[in-house]
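Renewal narrative, Specific Aim 1. Our central claim is that a sequence can be written position by position from structural information alone. The example that follows is taken directly from our test logs and has not been curated for this report. It begins with the structure tokens describing the chain, in the order in which they were read.
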């Protein structure tokens, strides 16, 4: 089964192909705008370089956010369009879960079970979600929220934890917290491959992962005023 992964939620546009239980292809281009112009040519390039074709795609996986408003809409629209055109399943994966899974694959049995994903929001706050590692599995342990640094620090007090995500290195831990909190560097480059992998692993079921965009802050979109007269 061949899975196509798409991630346009961050400061890059990324695609990946997962087949035969391995990552066949992955490419990310750094950008903050222009996703719509480069995404489908990147998919074309991925198929060309692997000798595959659109007809070979069995399932599409896409990052559902949080992330930039424009990037999210481009990725989700492309995933929906491909699923219709190719008559294949499509699965949504939150950026939080992709980050948590990338981190979980780096931990050892002696590491703490509390895992916090901290993502840059592009504003003064952070995006935050808590997960639990239980016997090698990953479970949601809280809803995604928008939080400032003081809120995050208060929640890290009292238990041993792991933090990851592109915002984790910006959290200023005091000496006491440095003894209890382990930082696992962000593995953003691996997200799109994980999204393709998860789509394949879920692809044998006919269930469709949620394709609702995950917005935590209200989108910063200015609509043009209608002119009268």
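The sequence written for that structure reads:
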């Amino acid at each position: 089964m061949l899975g196509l992964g798409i991630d346009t939620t961050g400061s890059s546009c990324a695609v990946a192909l997962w087949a035969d239980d391995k990552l066949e292809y992955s490419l990310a281009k750094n950008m903050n705008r222009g996703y719509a112009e480069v995404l489908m040519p990147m998919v074309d390039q991925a198929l060309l370089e692997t000798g595959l074709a659109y007809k070979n795609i069995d399932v599409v996986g896409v990052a559902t956010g949080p992330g930039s408003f424009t990037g999210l809409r481009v990725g989700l629209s492309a995933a929906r369009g491909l699923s219709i055109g190719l008559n294949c399943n499509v699965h949504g994966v939150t950026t939080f879960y992709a980050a948590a899974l990338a981190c979980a694959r780096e931990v050892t049995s002696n590491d703490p079970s509390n895992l916090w994903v901290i993502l840059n929001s592009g504003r003064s706050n952070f995006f935050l979600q808590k997960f639990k590692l239980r016997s090698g599995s990953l479970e949601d342990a809280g809803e995604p929220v928008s939080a400032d640094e003081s809120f995050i620090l208060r929640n890290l007090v009292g238990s041993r934890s792991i933090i990851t995500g592109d915002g984790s290195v910006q959290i200023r831990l005091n000496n006491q917290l440095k003894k209890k909190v382990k930082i696992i560097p962000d593995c953003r480059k691996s997200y799109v491959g994980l999204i393709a992998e998860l789509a394949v692993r879920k692809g044998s079921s006919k269930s469709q992962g949620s394709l609702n965009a995950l917005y935590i802050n209200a989108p910063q979109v200015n609509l043009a005023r209608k002119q009268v007269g």
